[in-house]
Structure formats: C-alpha cells, structure tokens
C-alpha cells in the first residue's frame, strides 16, 4: 500500500474519530479536503469500505441517509438537529429498557435504537 493511500486513510479515519457524531459521505469528504485538498470522492468511498471491513467504523442510517461513525463507542444514541442538520452522538440513554425486558404477550427486548430530534446547542434559542 502506497504512502499516499496510507495518509488518505489516516486523514479520513481521523475525521470520523474527531467528529461530533456520525457523518455522511459529503461531510467526510469536505472535512478531509481541509487536510488533503485534492482528495477525490471515489477515494473516500473506497476508504470507507476498507475501514468498514476492518471494523474501525460502521454505517448507521438516520433519516434514510447512511452515516459513518467509529466502532466501540458503547451504548449511545443520536441527536439530529432540525436546523443545521448535524447529527450528534449522545452518551445518555433516554429510555430505561434493559435487554431482556419482556412486554405483554411475550415480546422479548434485546436492543433498541432511538434518534432524538431538536435543536443542537449552537442552534437552540439563546445560544
Ligand atoms: Zn444545529
Ligand atoms: Zn439506549
């Protein structure tokens, strides 16, 4: 693997690592271009595929869009800002629903996904 390829992979992995939450492909591309101005979108897709195969990142779906975040963050949820469109990672759980909870009629809960919507700190009134 060439030095250039390694560098591209490092920059893209770092963009995802340092993000406030999961990022879409255009956002990853834009942020990585601040370090590598000539980075092409095809390279971004190729690198995301590689990092996914290596389990350094994984894709999630928010509002039907694929967003990428690093793996190993433990239990967390996402907050989607209705004004600026950014998605944030929240390390708080808004539902008290342990794995193994059994609902009436026998539905056994194993996991849950919750996406919260509202205004981020930068967009909230008074910010
Ligand atoms: Zn916002
Ligand atoms: Zn939770």
Automatic annotation (TrEMBL):
Fe cation binds at residues 75, 112. Its cofactor is Mn(2+); Fe(2+); Zn(2+). It comes from the Bacteria. Zn(2+) binds at residues 81, 84, 120, 123. The keyword Zinc-finger does not apply. It holds the Pfam family FUR. GO terms for molecular function: DNA-binding transcription factor activity; transcription cis-regulatory region binding; zinc ion binding. GO terms for biological process: negative regulation of DNA-templated transcription; regulation of secondary metabolite biosynthetic process. Coiled coil: none annotated. Gene3D superfamilies: 3.30.1490.190, Winged helix-like DNA-binding domain superfamily/Winged helix DNA-binding domain. Binds 1 Mn(2+) or Fe(2+) ion per subunit. Binds 1 zinc ion per subunit. InterPro entries: FUR, Fur_C, WH-like_DNA-bd_sf, WH_DNA-bd_sf. Keywords: DNA-binding, Iron, Metal-binding, Repressor, Transcription, Transcription regulation, Zinc. Belongs to the Fur family. This is Ferric uptake regulator, Fur family.
């Amino acid at each position: 693997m060439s030095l250039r390829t390694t560098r591209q992979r490092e920059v893209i992995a770092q963009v995802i690592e340092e993000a406030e939450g999961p990022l879409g492909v255009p956002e990853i591309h834009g942020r990585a271009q601040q370090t590598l101005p000539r980075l092409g979108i095809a390279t971004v897709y190729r690198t995301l595929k590689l990092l996914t195969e290596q389990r350094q990142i994984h894709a999630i779906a928010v509002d039907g869009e694929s967003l990428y975040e690093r793996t190993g963050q433990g239990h967390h949820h996402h907050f989607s800002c209705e004004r600026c469109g950014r998605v944030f990672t929240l390390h708080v759980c808004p539902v008290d629903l342990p794995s193994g909870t059994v609902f009436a009629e026998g539905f056994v809960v194993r996991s849950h996904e919750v996406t919260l919507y509202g205004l981020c700190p930068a967009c909230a009134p008074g910010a």
